[in-house]
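Give me structure tokens for this 252-residue protein.
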Amino acid sequence: MNSSTYNLDLAFQPVLDSATGEIDHHEIIGRFPHLSVANAASRVESNTGDDLGAALDLALGQGVVTLLQGLPYDRLLLPISWRSCALELFRVEFDRLLKIDPSVRQRMILEFVAADDVFGIEEATNYIAELRRIGCRICLSEFGATAVSYRFLQLIDVDYIKIDAGFLTGTTAEPRERMLREVAQGLADFDYKGIAKGIDDARLADITARAGISLGQGDFYGAPQGSLVSNGLPLHLSGGMSWQARAPFLLN
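Here you go.
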């Protein structure tokens, strides 16, 4: 299969323990600065959005594996599309990627967003279950945004649940705060780690911490940046982090 190389820039956003302020992990945020969506779509083998998304997910995964090999004490969260996991070609390539250094699996968190129309849902959920079996942590994102997220909890086992920022809006009212405390208790009962995302000010940070949401993410705790803090030491990555990423689904 033909492949292309594109510059992949990475930024890192910390996810902190709301009680201690210690970093639990960083979320990877990636982009291809010289590849427009329109240009990329014209280069996809089957000319479908699913293949394009899978190619970008795989390229981002390559970056995460590279980083984890050089940072033996850090955990990184990698967002992946459900639809990517439904594609056999992606599964083969991602398995090959994880075999480069099996030790990185224990420090890789894979984040999935629940969706209404997931093509190949059985293939995707079976593969996600296998990824968790071999050591990857699983995070369900956008929890509380729609009822779909509850359905997906019946299909897969997860370790982290990321609470949708919209759910936190208006949490100054006591009934809303009480509901948030009940959600936090429910997460604890099932041994899930909760992540409150979109924490952009001290008020929300205080509310979610008091409610018992163990982890927080947002500009209040740290905006995405081009350097990774590891054990208190900044690891400077030029241009955020940029290298030639191999995307085998994209044609020359």
